[in-house]
């Protein structure tokens, strides 16, 4: 690799994923480097929405639920997301926000082992995850133990036999550190616990194998690496072996075995359908479904390979910047697809970069996050972003 724009241009010209980048609606001259916060729209999204509103809703009115497949959308889109995270069919539903799905998943996980009174939560997780873990602990009268991920194995050992639900983030939202999902899931289960992984910064970013890794439950976000749009519905994965015992707290009528009978009491549907809640956000769901197409066509593995190499290029380009420290682990197996830099005045720097069309974000007080999603970020984008950063810092 060479730290010149010519080299970046040659790499970009030879990039087999370059055709996918053209399918995203990103303004000319803008560098979309915050796909870990809000992915840009794929060209198929406005087409799908236009079709959903004019032809389906406008053309068929309420018949859209059947004629246009709206009723089955949570499971259909769920299966498509399932393929991206290594889940066989019938184990993922799409709907609600990530926060709601976290509440649903953590409560159900705790109820799978009601005699285990310790709820373990990743202390470095996104605030909503931590707030919800605390709320579930209050609701079910559990003892909440928050731990940094580094200390998780020790905490599991100390509470072996008492551990119930364990909520962890697969990729740290601040530092981009990727945790060992397979190894930690096994450790959680050895301690008697039920592993709930938050895949918000991992789904569509890194190859996942939730089935092979024996993950119990997982939740993820629709608007980050899946590019489903602002407020896109989230997803919930539950391993098939748990379906029969899954006592989800949000018992809406869509999760009923016979929703149109409208009878008492609540009888959960078979399979993952019991994890449906109420009427799904169809327009957002269809936008998310259309957004998956470029990622499915490119393949998570290819996107991940390129993202790893883009980050290595970034590491090399920032190496001589005074006062800039790379917080994200450098080993590819230990990081997701966003890179976090520590630098003074990160908030002001991010603001200045934004003015230059370099869309990154900051986590106060001193972290700058740069998302290198190989699906639409190019080698020249990385080169130009660092050139702008260099000028801003000067
Ligand atoms: C983005 C993100 C969320 C977002 O939750 P919403 O309900 O969509 O606001 C939750 N948890 C993690 C770890 C996230 O990265």
Write the layout of secondary structure elements.
Elements: H1 5-13, H2 18-21, E1 31-32, H3 44-60, H4 64-67, H5 73-85, E2 92-94, H6 98-112, E3 118-122, H7 127-140, E4 143-147, H8 152-158, E5 163-169, H9 181-190, E6 194-198, E7 217-220, E8 235-238, H10 282-298, H11 300-318, E9 325-326, E10 338-342, H12 346-355, E11 358-359, E12 361-363, E13 367-371, H13 379-393
Helix pairs in contact: 1-13, 3-10, 5-10, 6-7, 11-13
Residues 97-99, 125-126, 128-129, 169, 173, 198, 200-201, 221 line the site of pyridoxal-5'-phosphate.
What does this structure look like?
With 394 residues, the protein is an alpha/beta fold. The protein folds into two domains: 5-32 and 299-393, Aspartate Aminotransferase, domain 1, CATH 3.90.1150; 48-295, 3-Layer(aba) Sandwich (Aspartate Aminotransferase, domain 2), CATH 3.40.640.10. It is built from 13 helices and 13 strands. The protein has a seven-stranded mixed β-sheet with strand order 2-8-7-6-5-3-4, with helices on both faces. Strands 9-10-13-12 form a four-stranded antiparallel β-sheet, with helices on one face. The two termini are 25 Å apart. The mean pLDDT is 97. Bound molecules: pyridoxal-5'-phosphate. The site of pyridoxal-5'-phosphate has 13 residues, from α6 and α7. Belongs to the kynureninase family.
């Amino acid at each position: 690799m060479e730290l010149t724009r010519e080299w970046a241009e040659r790499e970009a010209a030879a990039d087999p994923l370059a055709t996918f980048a053209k399918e995203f609606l990103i303004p000319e001259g803008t560098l979309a480097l915050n796909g870990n916060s809000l992915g840009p729209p794929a060209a198929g999204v406005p087409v799908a929405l236009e079709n959903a509103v004019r032809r389906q809703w406008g053309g068929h009115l309420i018949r859209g639920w059947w004629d246009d497949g709206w009723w089955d959308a949570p499971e259909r889109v769920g299966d498509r997301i399932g393929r991206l995270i290594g889940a066989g069919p019938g184990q993922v539903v799409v709907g609600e926000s990530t926060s709601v799905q976290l509440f649903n998943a953590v409560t159900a996980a705790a109820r799978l082992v009601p005699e285990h009174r310790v709820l373990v939560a990743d202390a470095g997780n996104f605030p909503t995850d931590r707030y919800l873990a605390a709320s579930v602990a209050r609701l079910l009268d559990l003892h909440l133990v928050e731990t940094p991920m580094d200390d998780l194995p020790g905490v599991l050992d100390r509470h072996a036999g008492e551990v119930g639900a364990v909520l962890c983030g697969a990729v740290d939202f601040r530092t981009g550190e990727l945790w060992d999902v397979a190894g930690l899931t096994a450790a959680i289960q050895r301690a008697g616990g039920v592993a709930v992984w938050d895949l918000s910064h991992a789904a569509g970013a890194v190859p996942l194998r939730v089935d092979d890794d024996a993950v119990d439950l997982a939740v993820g976000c629709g608007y980050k690496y899946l590019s489903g749009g602002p407020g896109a519905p989230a997803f919930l994965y539950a391993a098939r072996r748990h379906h029969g015992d899954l006592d989800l707290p949000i018992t809406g009528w869509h999760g009923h075995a016979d929703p149109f009978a409208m009878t008492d009491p609540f009888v959960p549907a078979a399979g993952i359908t019991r994890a449906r809640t109420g009427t799904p956000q169809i327009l957002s769901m269809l936008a998310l479904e259309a957004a998956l197409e470029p990622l499915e066509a490119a393949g998570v593995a290819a996107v991940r390979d390129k993202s790893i190499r883009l980050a290595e290029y970034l590491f090399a380009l920032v190496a001589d910047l005074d006062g800039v420290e790379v917080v994200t682990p450098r080993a590819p197996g230990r990081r997701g697809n966003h890179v976090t830099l520590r630098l003074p005045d990160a908030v002001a720097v991010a603001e200045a970069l934004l003015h230059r069309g370099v869309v990154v974000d900051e986590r106060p007080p001193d972290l700058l996050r740069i998302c290198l999603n190989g699906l639409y970020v190019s080698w020249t984008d990385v080169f130009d972003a660092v050139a702008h950063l260099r000028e801003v810092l000067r």
